[in-house]
Amino acid sequence: MSKSASRLPVNFGFIHRLTAEEVSRAAAGGWAAQDLGIVGGKDPSIYISSIALQSYIPEIYLITIFGKPYIQLFGRKKLVQAPVAQAIELENGAIMLKLMDDLSIIDPVEMEARRREVKIHLGSEAFYDPQIGATGGYQKANFELQV
After folding, report:
1. Distance CA 64, CA 143 (A)
2. Cα–Cα distance, 131 to 32 (Å, whole number)
């Protein structure tokens, strides 16, 4: 996984398997599904638009990869010391956070608790908050246009 993530430059990346609770919240509309990029249906999925990333970080996922803009925002040391199962510095300079030890068995309660810990550690003002919505005053990463 880390080899694949190291091959390309990355600003933000993730791997996640939606839990039944996440899908239910999104379907009920109580979780601002549109702002978080959750698409329902027979095979629910998740996406993140570059527009959203310019405003906020939608969530901490089972695996979240932070590239240069987020390393500058949070600091390399803070990301590497995040309260996760594993933090890996990739060859391309990005930092990959693995939220849980065993990604094949997801306890939704434990996942939410870990997410809260990571957000508090990094600074929750950079992460989407349904009370604020998509247009809130979030702490943002600075993306540089590369040509």
Report:
1. 18
2. 10
Q: In residues, how long is the chain?
A: 147
Tokens of 9: 């430059």
b/e code 16-29 from CB counts within 10 Å (16+ = b): bebeeebbebbeee
Q: Tokens 């932070």 map to which residue?
A: 66
What are the tokens at 143?
Answer: 């993306």
- Check: CB of residue 87 under 8 Å from CB of residue 96: yes
Tell me which of 20-24, 37-41, 137-141 is least confident.
37-41
Q: Distance between CA atoms of 14 and 57, rounded to whole angstroms?
A: 11
Question: Quick one: CA torsion of 2, 9, 124, 57, rounded to 10 degrees?
Answer: -110
Q: How buried is 70 (Cβ within 10 angstroms: 0-12 exposed, 13-18 middle, 19+ buried)? A: buried
Which ranges of 47-107 would DSSP assign to H, the alpha helix?
50-53, 68-74, 76-80
- Residue pLDDT, tens place only, 58-104: 899 999 999 999 999 999 999 999 999 999 999 999 999 999 999 88
